[in-house]
Amino acid sequence: MREDVEFATEDGVTLRGWLYRPDEGGGPFPVIVMAHGFSATKEMHLDDFAEYFAAGGFAVLVYDNRNLGASDGEPRGEIDPWRQVRDYRDAITWVSARPDVDAARVGIWGSSYSGGHVLVVAAQDRRVRCVVSQVPLISGYDNARRLVRADHLAGLREAFDADRAARYRGEAPGMIQVCWVDDPSEPCALPTQDTRDFFLGPIQEKATTWRNEVTLRSVEMFTEYEPGDYLPRITPTPLMMVVAAQDHLTVSDLSLAAYGRAHEPKRLLVLPVGHFQAYVGEAFRVSAPAQREWFLTHLGK
């Protein structure tokens, strides 16, 4: 069963999403809190994971990040990782107060950019009893060095500085495409072919609120964000990391190296696919049951 819900963050922004509950039983249910990655909205396959988890006996809260999709927040397209981390914690607070949710059995799930967020949240918030991090961002700096050509880095830094000066003068934030549309040389935040294929592909029929633009400041904050630093602090909370071996967006070698810095209890699942393939097809059929079993093991039915 799914219903539309909304809740306010501590700073007064309304976030909107879906609350799933098992079809059988009256609760209180263990709960999983979920949000999507960089610019993505909940319709981009989060419903598939949430439905699967709910069928296993979980309540599941799925919401759009602030400034994106159905959620409120200004400026539109602004992706501030630390505000998104705090929003995860507000989502936990809101859903834990519901009578049909067991506040002692809270899990969190994130993918790509939010796969990094859940590492931070799990390290900071001991209400979290289990975490799944799928194809996560580990290091904004190192990842940006993989995505941006070396001879373009100086120009990107100049653009950040010019945008900062313009905002200081009271001008609107500069914007940049999430992915290129016609030409791979177009400036964009995520300059890979599979990013374009995903966001501009069939998923657009479902994800009607997604927009192919974010603030330039969002890219600057991306380069400064280091969620992998929090990995050693997650213990004793159980961590499952799902890595796509052919991932060149949140590159797999960084994720695999980072996994070694996490302490037990932990589990690694490596899928023989690229970044966006982790959401669909055979990868989903392998990964979703393993993730649900991880939550069942550590949160119970």
Describe the structure.
The chain has helices spanning 46-55, 81-96, 113-124, 140-147, 153-168, 193-199, 216-223, 252-259, 281-299; strands at residues 2-8, 14-20, 29-35, 59-63, 101-111, 128-134, 175-176, 214-215, 239-244, 266-271. The strands form 2 sheets. An 8-stranded mixed beta sheet has the order 1-2-4-3-5-6-9-10, with helices on both faces. Helix 2 (81-96) packs across helix 3. The chain is globular, with a radius of gyration of 18 Å. The mean pLDDT is 97. The protein is α/β, with parallel strands linked by helices. The protein has 9 helices and 10 strands. One of its GO terms (molecular function) is hydrolase activity. This is Alpha/beta hydrolase. Keywords: Hydrolase. Belongs to the AB hydrolase superfamily. Pfam families: Peptidase_S15.
Question: Which descriptors apply to this entry?
Answer:
single chain; alpha/beta; 8-stranded mixed beta sheet; two-stranded antiparallel ribbon; 10 strands; 20% strand; globular; Xaa-Pro-like_dom; AB_hydrolase_fold; FrsA_esterase; hydrolase
List the helices and strands and how they pair.
Blueprint: E1 2-8, E2 14-20, E3 29-35, H1 46-55, E4 59-63, H2 81-96, E5 101-111, H3 113-124, E6 128-134, H4 140-147, H5 153-168, E7 175-176, H6 193-199, E8 214-215, H7 216-223, E9 239-244, H8 252-259, E10 266-271, H9 281-299
Parallel strand pairs: 3-4, 3-5, 5-6, 6-9, 9-10
Antiparallel strand pairs: 1-2, 2-4, 7-8
